[in-house]
């Protein structure tokens, strides 16, 4: 419609049929109102546009910092109630009061400073995001001009615009590829930072470096001097909060890092797009329509947010179930031989299937929820907002002249150009806003992974500081000794080992021994005996720093002066040499001045020198856990002891699979190397090597005394002899009764 053919303004304002005088007066008033509005319209428009941009920035800031979420909840008059229970309800969701604080903490880890590599990558990423938005604005404009040159049949203009179109493709494609590349790189960089941070605590080596010798897996590798090391053990055994730490350290950290990298471009770019596109649109179609559009869009977006289920909590729960399922599989692999020999397939299958179906049930539920949520989401974002967008495009066409917009008063070419440009801008703006909305779901998932990763880091910090959370056994003994559990004993570094009134308490709160006192002087081997489960190994867990000292005083040398050998020695991933020198590596071995020949001499002492050739040399790599027999494993552990030559060695049933001859060689050689032994064993054959005994009675009591092996053996033999004879007594009694009966029968026959 051109201005030349347009009817006068008053005729276009159709008014209801009123008396002519009233109509004329109303028309006059309306005309003057409109004229006044049109006079101040540029000012109003500028105000609206500025307000709109501020509004976009404000809401983005509030939603990114979580203040909007908090404010909303606080106004719901539930501030007082927001205690533990409340935060539990929101756990893993965007509404979790802790979410943004935790996210901030994690972001500080992944982007430690503005000068870090990650910050530079993020800045570069942001620059590319800006470039893409600028390119999109240019393309929207160019698109309009191309169509305009087409409908107005201007071939030269068309070709020139087309060549511009092709030229812009080079920076556009480069920008898009770089954005993808930088996003993946950022995800990887975040993951590396987080993994390093988490592993630094999880596998924190002892303060004295890698020279520690408390070398077995059961006691946490390289020992502890009460400085919060061996955390991976404590996390699994002394605290209930983190189940399957492997899942947290691998999958959850990876998911969190990728989501964090994604969410930045999925929120920052669309938010920027929304602002710029809408600003441009407001100039093309007028700010009034845009403000109405924004109000409608925000209202529907608010509705959508309100009906969005807690996808973050669902993602966190799914990760937990995945972890549990993986654990059942790795457990089966770990104990493959035992399960195979028991033919426990059916049982193990049931366990794995239970884990799998719990996961499937949860995933299915989430998928079903996603169906209706997806419908609501697409209905609002695509269809409703699409219709609103078309309405906006119509403004310059139908109301252009009234509002003084170019699209309404121009030629067919300018109107087409305006329509195509506006339509493209709108599509981009609604797409961008849609992505902001969709990213709310991603934000919810990020909240889930944030809660998982933060849980891991927080729990590790707690455990490191000795703040354990474990469900205690509800036995009366525990309740009666609750005070005991609150106490803390002392650990003092010393040359000898001494326990002064130290209680033995298991992580479950079971008091094994109320107060224990004994000492081991260098050179005086100690034998520890007692019934199963009485706390023999627990003593060494306390000595190794794995279990807390709840009272009394423990005197002990630094951890590097210990080696622990359990019944099933730990065999690491690596070469045959690595098995002997664990936890040292070949370089450390050379630094100590030990050669392969020295190792061979150690093996010869244990009559296993042939093993090196049999296994293919010192550098052979195998799954040693499966490749060696039980006796070989125990002898490897003894060889390890001779390599490390510690002051003290803890031998926990470690000779159960070797012959008596090897047992003797081991004790004699260890004594000749000046190693003081503390042995847990039920085998009387070992008594003669020890001079002290710590005997548990299994009722919470114990005796610590000198061990006269010969006398003890003689007593043991006499005891066994008596027990054997006592076993015969019932049989002898029965036989006596039989003989009496026979005799009585004979006498009865004779008298008859
Ligand atoms: N990580 C743990 N968490 C909870 N309780 C544990 C843990 N380790 C051991 N216990 C409990 O501590 C108690 C003592 O265990 P310990 O291993 O010291 O027994 P033991 O005397 O060495 O037995 P055995 O002769 O059978 O090896 C047992 O009741 C056991 O169930």
From TrEMBL:
Signal sequence interval, chain numbering: none
The ABC transporter domain, residue ranges: 497-742
Topological category with respect to the lipid bilayer: Multi-pass membrane protein
Subcellular location per the Swiss-Prot or TrEMBL entry: Endomembrane system; Peroxisome
Key words, A-Z: ATP-binding, Hydrolase, Membrane, Nucleotide-binding, Peroxisome, Translocase, Transmembrane, Transmembrane helix, Transport
GO annotation terms (biological process): fatty acid beta-oxidation; long-chain fatty acid import into peroxisome; peroxisome organization; very long-chain fatty acid catabolic process
Main location: membrane
Region Disordered, annotated ranges: 1-20
Coiled coil (UniProt feature): none
Family per similarity comment: Belongs to the ABC transporter superfamily. ABCD family. Peroxisomal fatty acyl CoA transporter (TC 3.A.1.203) subfamily.
Gene Ontology MF term list: ABC-type transporter activity; ATP binding; ATP hydrolysis activity; long-chain fatty acid transmembrane transporter activity
Domain of life per record: Eukaryota
This protein's name: ABC transporter transmembrane region 2-domain-containing protein
Family annotation (Pfam families): ABC_membrane_2, ABC_tran
Entry GO terms, CC: endomembrane system; peroxisomal membrane
